[in-house]
Request: fold
Amino acid sequence: MKYVSTRGRVEPISFKEAVMMGLANDDGLLIPQSFPKFSQVDLERFSTYDYPSLAYEIIRRFALDMHPVKLRQIIEKSYSNFDTKSVIPVVKKGDIHIAEIFHGPTFAFKDIALQFLGNMFEHILEEKRLDMNILGATSGDTGSAAIYGVRGKKNIRIFVLYPKGRVSEVQEMQMTSVTDDNVFNLAVDGTFDDCQNIVKEIFGDLFFKERYDLGAVNSINWARIVAQIVYYFWCAFRAAEPGQKVTFVVPTGNFGNIFAGYCAKLMGLPVDKFILATNENNILTRFINDGDYTVKDVKFTHSPSMDIQLASNFERYLYLFYDRDPVKIKSLMAELKENKGLKFSPADVKRVQEDFGTYSTSNEETEQVIANFYKEHNYILDPHTACGVAAGLKVKNGTPVICLATASPAKFPDVVKKATGVEPERPEGITALEGLPRKVNEIGNSVHEVREFIKSKVK
Ligand SMILES: *Cc1c(COP(=O)(O)O)cnc(C)c1O
Reply:
């Protein structure tokens, strides 16, 4: 199995090459030429595996150029520092199964992919005797998960830009309490958009990019998707009888998480529907309901990691939806850029709805769901998960409903306190950071300053 680009201009490449390329060289996204298929007998066997064994069984089919022993080691290492032995507990509250995919070092589900990606980068760079300098902008969750994915690694440095004073206290503490020599936090005097623009401009300078071996960890890297496919199998095995169909509810921003679920279905996992949950930034809800993918201004909501308009992984879905036609994708992406939106035909919408349902939750309803769920089940939802549960409570198709809990409520204590009156308990992995020394560099809202900073740290 090899990887090709959704825009058709990359010769088929191997898994390791796809991991190192990140965004495809023709500006498309990399995707496998075909998906492995599992039979019911395979699935029943996998259902008895522990998490790393299941991850190995699935990922090895996508990573044919990895030495099996090395791949197994990387997977074991990636999930060894989660705070529960099962890696992903699935708990039942009323009629809903809650899949806690947030037990990694930074308490949001990004760890599942970024622990794996960090270890893959380290391994591939070691083989090639190369170094890499990761540059990224974050509004909170991705930055901390990326830092924990690469901290202490000898051949990788990471530079993370975040808007000073505009990330949550826990997120800032998670990033700045990492004092490893290879980690640089840059608190930018500006907004998240400013941070992103600085990063884009620096990546756009191809000479600088090459000279300083810049790399990225954003959600378009295929290694992130492949690591996320695993827990769809894991969760279905725990919520359903063998062969029984399930419904997944996925709080969605960039369409990365839910796309991984869609891949699991293509591989033979019995899934009735994926319910795509959004907050007030509901472009994907409009797409599924009416075929209206029109970009609007981003609203700030209680679930900031879903405050996204253009979903970067959506292109992968469209590519499969239109039978792997790169010409069609190129024209759609040009149209999207030109018109700030896309419209889909009623026939297309009908086809989308065979796999996807959707629901969009307001801030007010998010608070209500957190409050009600706490009253009924004595269980605290984080605001992202609450958007999912709001959607999950409306599903009535008779299948087990699995809501993915994408972050620990301890990461978003303000909304939780407002809704329930109680402060969510902080896990040890967060309280242990209080009082640790901090390492952060304040920096102006300036491409020049950031560029000079990188130069000064990279020989
Ligand atoms: C990133 C994130 C999401 C959105 O996931 P996508 O893969 O971008 O759709 C949802 N919830 C939380 C807590 C996140 O950090």
Notes: The pocket of pyridoxal-5'-phosphate is lined by residues 108, 110, 141, 219, 251-257, 305-306, 384, 406-407 (CB under 6 Å). The longest helix spans residues 110-128.
